[in-house]
């Protein structure tokens, strides 16, 4: 695996399933804005970062300009559709006619104001201990493609594609050359910062770009990024999303496996399925996009956010990003009761995992032998010493966003838990994840075989901490 510069965000030396930053282990946990904090000129990212820092959240994700959305797609005000307030790496020309408003772009000139904003964004994040995941591309949608500065009608050079699937291939030589130049410029401009991860593309074949063509295009982008950094002082982690047909998990150049949503659908591989199938690669695994909170889902937000976050991180995930529509130009700090509750739930999650010496722990699919009632259970452990477990009652959503989030199944639960533990005495603590209040405790002896524990009553989900005593 590529080595990163000491002090920069990198793979932990003692446990490659986790990150290390400034010489210390770090979990990346956040509920972040919709990736447009830099390209939306009027978005106040200082207020946004201050809100994350208030809840101990330490991760954000940006699209730096090649991908722009059309107004009104997901919500009336969206940072990825800033209209006339769009600012991207390329300077504006004197020629009117850009679909999103204003003049077309001049691909021969970089926009100095944009790069000053990008650098300040990363610096402000760094001051607050926030890691920035810079994702160069997203697959183009049919209703978005004309808004990209790399659309043939969006720049005065007439360089670019018209077919959305053309953007994720090397077929258009002029377009591909400009994409490589864009990747190089962004890396050069941000090379001095230790709080940056470079991610290549989200959803590369979502709309059925031919798999082989997309794979070859991503491979060429990775080759370019590695070559650019070879000539620069600092080295950063590279990340790529796992998708059906697009698998860079065993590529030594890729340090981080990224995933989206909870299951497998629309060619995307969700967080827990990736833990089940890709943990063996000994790399950090992220779940870096969830259902779009306050956009295409507006109810049960607090519970739904908590279910997938706790399940993934307590199951051995390294980074979690809740896609959050509360952060807008009008409300950059996302202030409202529902969002504060969501952020507090993630703060509780971080506190729970960090209450363990988690760098010594790995995903555990063997200790939990069964539960007396249907539930989803994930765990991590240092076997024989410490165990973290999370269980919830829900079912995958159906309809337009089938399988992208869990619908809560509230009830009165008090199941029996069957565990297999090495012989010894253990102390179990049961915790309500929403409030982080202890709801039960028990000390018990294990003989090395199966042992049964009775849960205290709870409504939806429960976290369990088991520590060997003495």
Output the CATH class name of the largest domain. Answer: Alpha Beta
- Low-pLDDT stretches are none
SS-derived structural category? alpha/beta
Question: Mind describing the biggest β-sheet?
Answer: 8 strands, parallel
Nearest-angstrom radius of gyration? Answer: 23 Å
- Ends distance: 39 Å
Give the tally of structural domains: 2
Average residue pLDDT = 96
Oligomer: single chain
Q: Biggest sheet, strands in spatial order?
A: 4-15-14-11-10-9-8-5
Shape: globular
Q: How many individual β-strands?
A: 26
Residues in β-strands, percent = 25-35%
The CATH architecture of the largest domain is Alpha-Beta Barrel
What name does the CATH topology of the largest domain carry?
TIM Barrel
Helix count equals 7
Question: Approximately how much helix is present in the residues?
Answer: 10-25%
CATH superfamily of the largest domain: Glycosidases
Structural overview:
The chain has 2 domains: 10-359, Glycosidases (TIM Barrel, Alpha-Beta Barrel), CATH 3.20.20; 364-468, Immunoglobulin-like (Sandwich), CATH 2.60.40. 22% of the residues lie in helices and 28% in strands. The chain has 7 helices and 26 strands. The strands form 7 sheets. The chain has an 8-stranded parallel beta sheet with strand order 4-15-14-11-10-9-8-5, with helices on one face. Strands 16-18-19-26-23-24 form a 6-stranded antiparallel beta sheet, with helices on one face. Helix 6 (301-314) packs parallel to helix 7 (337-354). The chain is globular. The model has no long low-confidence stretch (mean pLDDT 96).
SSE layout and pairings?
Layout: E1 10-11, E2 19-21, E3 24-26, E4 28-32, H1 45-54, E5 59-62, E6 90-96, E7 103-110, H2 112-127, E8 131-138, H3 173-190, E9 196-202, H4 211-230, E10 238-241, E11 256-259, E12 264-265, E13 268-269, H5 271-278, E14 285-287, H6 301-314, E15 319-323, H7 337-354, E16 362-363, E17 368-371, E18 376-382, E19 386-392, E20 394-396, E21 406-408, E22 416-420, E23 424-432, E24 437-446, E25 450-454, E26 461-468
Parallel strand pairs: 4-15, 5-8, 8-9, 9-10, 10-11, 11-14, 14-15
Antiparallel strand pairs: 1-2, 2-3, 6-7, 12-13, 16-18, 17-22, 18-19, 19-26, 20-21, 22-25, 23-24, 23-26
